[in-house]
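Retro notes (design track)

What went well: tokenization of the new backbones is finally stable.
What didn't: we kept losing track of which sequence belonged to which structure.
Fix going forward: every design gets posted as structure first, then sequence, in one message. First example under the new rule, 387 residues:
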């Protein structure tokens, strides 16, 4: 198998995808703008060959890189970055070189939140009331139906960037006078917690791995209000989440792909928010590994090479992520040494977070694991306590 990966240098933990593929016999062909000498030793060891371009945004350079790989290794079998940012480039290369996976025409529904909502509605899954608004008048017309507050976010965007919660006409006017270019979607504000449906589908669309992350508040609040990033996995996934999530995977035609689907759990049930056709970010793959005593990176490599995985994911543990914001004005009740001394028996991983992710994921993070959730909640309350 000839496997082309865009931007293999980032995020750093994704090197495990390429190491496992190389160990399983794939030719792993990397394309990036980083000088080869600056790649980590692990990444250099995982790559069959590396093609350095001046600019990953320059599609012509990517096209020529793939042409070179074909000339040397033969037909390309997969092109994948596992990154939402490069979804478009992945699809363009797959389209031009007839590679298995999402092509250009498949992307619109998973890139634009307004189109996601239409797909959700078409399969009978509730969504928040909302639409794309291009003028203050269109926004006010929607607010007459929903009332304040409302959430506004780019119709096509990554993460929580340029995402706002508006509480008044004054904030609405300020938003339209200062907003970035591009279309924004406005939605009613929903009370509830976020529950996700994450996993991996095989090349026929069957879900092989499933998981749920629970967040008591969203990434927008974590970023805008400097809240710590706290979320955890469930051992038992609610039946309605499995039902809705499975229907969504099928409706969007996800095959041999990771997925990350977000819902609000409200007092009246689940409401679909959005779908991401990529792995959950940050340390989430590591959380899946700890929750299952597994190597998800290796299972993905087995799926690509053999068309199947070799283990059941039975989730014997809960895993809790505590990403702490470390800022001068945020004072903690307990030191890192206090935390490790008191709860080291629950902590399976800890360390700094790359600055580019810190607004959403915290500056320093802990992963904790236990068959029972309550000890983890108690430990995380201690870890995250502020003066």
């Amino acid at each position: 198998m000839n496997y082309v990966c865009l931007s293999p240098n980032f995020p750093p933990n994704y090197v495990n995808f390429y190491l496992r593929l190389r160990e399983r016999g794939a030719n792993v062909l990397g394309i990036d703008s980083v000088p080869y000498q600056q790649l980590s030793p692990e990444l250099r060891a995982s790559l069959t060959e590396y093609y350095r371009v001046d600019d990953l945004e320059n599609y012509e350079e990517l096209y020529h890189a793939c042409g070179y790989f074909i000339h040397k290794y033969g037909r390309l079998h997969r092109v994948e970055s596992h990154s939402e940012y490069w979804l478009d480039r992945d699809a363009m290369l797959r389209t031009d070189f007839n590679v298995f996976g999402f092509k250009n025409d498949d992307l619109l529904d998973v890139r634009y939140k307004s189109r996601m909502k239409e797909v959700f509605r078409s399969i009978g899954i509730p969504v928040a009331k909302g639409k794309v608004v291009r003028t203050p008048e269109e926004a006010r017309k929607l607010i007459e139906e929903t009332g304040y507050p409302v959430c506004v976010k780019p119709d096509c965007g990554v993460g929580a960037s340029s995402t706002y919660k508006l509480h008044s006409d004054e904030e609405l006017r300020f938003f339209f006078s200062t907003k970035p270019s591009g279309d924004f979607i406005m939605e009613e504000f929903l009370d509830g917690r976020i529950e996700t449906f994450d996993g991996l589908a095989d090349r026929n669309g069957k879900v092989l791995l499933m998981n749920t992350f629970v967040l008591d508040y969203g990434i927008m609040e974590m970023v805008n209000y400097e809240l710590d990033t706290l979320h955890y996995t469930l051992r038992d996934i609610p039946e309605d989440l499995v039902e809705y999530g499975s229907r969504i995977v099928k409706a969007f035609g996800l095959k041999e792909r990771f997925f990350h689907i977000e819902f609000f759990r409200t007092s009246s049930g689940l409401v679909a928010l959005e779908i991401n056709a990529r792995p959950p970010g940050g340390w989430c793959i590591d959380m899946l590994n700890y929750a299952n005593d597994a190597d998800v990176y290796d299972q993905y490599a087995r799926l690509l090479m053999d068309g199947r995985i070799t283990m059941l994911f039975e989730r014997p543990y809960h895993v809790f992520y505590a990403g702490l914001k470390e800022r001068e004005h945020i004072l903690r009740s307990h030191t890192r040494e206090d935390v490790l001394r008191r709860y080291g028996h629950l902590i399976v991983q800890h360390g700094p977070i790359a600055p580019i992710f810190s607004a959403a994921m915290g500056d320093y993070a802990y992963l904790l694991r236990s068959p029972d959730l309550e000890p983890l909640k108690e430990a995380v309350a201690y870890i995250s306590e502020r003066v």
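Added context from the reviewer: The mean pLDDT is 95.
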